[in-house]
Design brief:
The protein is α/β, with parallel strands linked by helices. Helix content is 34%, strand content 17%.
């Protein structure tokens, strides 16, 4: 069983999904409930303590008073995806890296496209800051599918863009 809750932010409504002990997903669109084959396992629980903790920390982030998240989370993915997500977690608030930087960090210099795909499948955007990865030419490329405007807003919030 999963509990979920939501909060309104400057980039829109964010949904947080938790199991009994961990944050497991962050979504930008409520359609995840219709698209997930296990949607009947989700229960709206705005008073769930873990959901409340995640939402509080997200609200602090958007208020500019939090730069790191301290929530227990669980990631499901391939070994490669987890390796990429760990590298993303090391990108500091207000810093950006390009896909090639991540490829070098994980000792897979030719895996730039695969890193982009792992980035796209990040189940915990913002908490695992995939928005801090930009194109080699400093272009803002891809974020949560077609949500490049969100990426831009998050980078503005962090002082990367003006």
């Amino acid at each position: 069983m999963y509990q979920y809750s939501n909060t309104t932010t400057p980039i829109g409504t964010i949904y947080v999904v938790c199991d009994a002990n961990h944050l497991v997903r962050i979504e930008f669109d409520k359609e995840f409930l219709q698209k997930d084959k296990d949607a009947d396992l989700y229960k709206y629980a705005p008073d769930d303590p873990l959901c409340e903790l995640v939402i509080t920390q997200l609200e602090e982030y958007f208020a500019g008073i939090r730069s790191e998240f301290e929530v227990p989370f669980h990631l499901e993915g391939t070994v490669f995806q987890k390796e990429v997500w760990k590298a993303l977690s090391n990108i500091q608030y207000g810093e950006v890296k390009c896909y090639q930087d991540i490829a070098k960090e994980i000792n897979r210099p030719l895996a730039v496209r695969a890193i982009g795909q792992a980035n796209r499948r990040n189940p915990l955007p913002i908490v695992i800051p995939c928005h801090r990865v930009i194109g080699k030419n400093k272009d803002l490329v891809g974020y949560a599918g077609d949500k490049i405007g969100m990426k831009e807003e998050l980078l503005k919030l962090e002082g990367v863009l003006v």
